[in-house]
């Protein structure tokens, strides 16, 4: 069976993350991915959940309110400052990460992820990613500014050395209205 984009993104991460690891939700938004990661790493693991909007951090706290896990560290800052936060928390190895790009669903559609900070954040993450770990990007490109970011991320990912990374693109090619797709980067 073909999986939808979010299910496949989660499947990839679940297959490669171990319990107890530290992982990153680079854009926590409404908290769906943070909640998912929190369950995957379990009580002994940790999720760093980034977002630049207070509303998103609050929504994510709300989404987690019924979960029994207290393993999420909320960071109200750009993921472009990832290294500073990893160092502050003494994190030297990351088990995996997700970037769900674009704007906050049901929020301000003008506050979007962008080419510079997204690529910078990936550049910060790859050196600390575990061997065989994955950075999964869910790329939305139908909104204003989306295509610009999509081209930059694709260019960056396509030029990663195949000796060091496997890079996958997954998406449905017969859907209308700029369907999202996945770029998954696996460290070799
Ligand atoms: N993962 C979320 C979920 O499960 O509900 C959806 C994320 S939403 C598509 C994108 C989010 O990226 C928005 O909440 C937005 O505020 C956030 N964002 C935009 N630029 C950012 C940046 N530089 N650093 C961190 N978050 C950013």
Automatic annotation (TrEMBL):
Report keywords, A-Z: Methyltransferase, Transferase
**GO BP, one example?**
methylation
Q: Which residues form a coiled coil?
A: none
GO: which molecular function terms? methyltransferase activity
Read off the Pfam families from this record: rRNA_methylase (PF06962)
Which InterPro entries does the UniProt entry name for this protein? MnmM_MeTrfase (IPR010719), SAM-dependent_MTases_sf (IPR029063)
| Record-given protein name | Class I SAM-dependent methyltransferase
């Amino acid at each position: 069976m073909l999986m939808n984009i979010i299910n496949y993104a989660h499947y990839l991460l679940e297959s490669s993350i171990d319990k107890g690891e530290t992982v990153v939700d680079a854009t926590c938004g409404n908290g769906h991915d943070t909640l998912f990661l929190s369950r995957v790493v379990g009580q002994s693991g940790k999720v760093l959940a980034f977002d630049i909007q207070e509303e998103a951090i609050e929504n994510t706290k709300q989404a987690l309110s019924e979960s029994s896990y207290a393993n999420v560290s909320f960071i109200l800052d750009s993921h472009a400052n990832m290294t500073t936060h990893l160092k502050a928390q003494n994190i030297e190895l990351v088990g995996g990460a997700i970037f769900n790009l674009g704007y906050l669903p049901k929020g301000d559609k003008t506050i979007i992820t962008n080419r510079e900070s997204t690529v910078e954040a990936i550049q910060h993450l790859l050196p600390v990613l575990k061997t065989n770990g994955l950075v999964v990007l869910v790329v939305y490109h139908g909104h204003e500014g989306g295509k610009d970011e999509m081209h930059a991320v694709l260019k960056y990912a396509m030029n990663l050395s195949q000796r060091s990374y496997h890079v996958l693109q997954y998406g449905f090619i017969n859907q209308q209205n700029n369907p999202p797709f996945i770029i998954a980067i696996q460290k070799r």
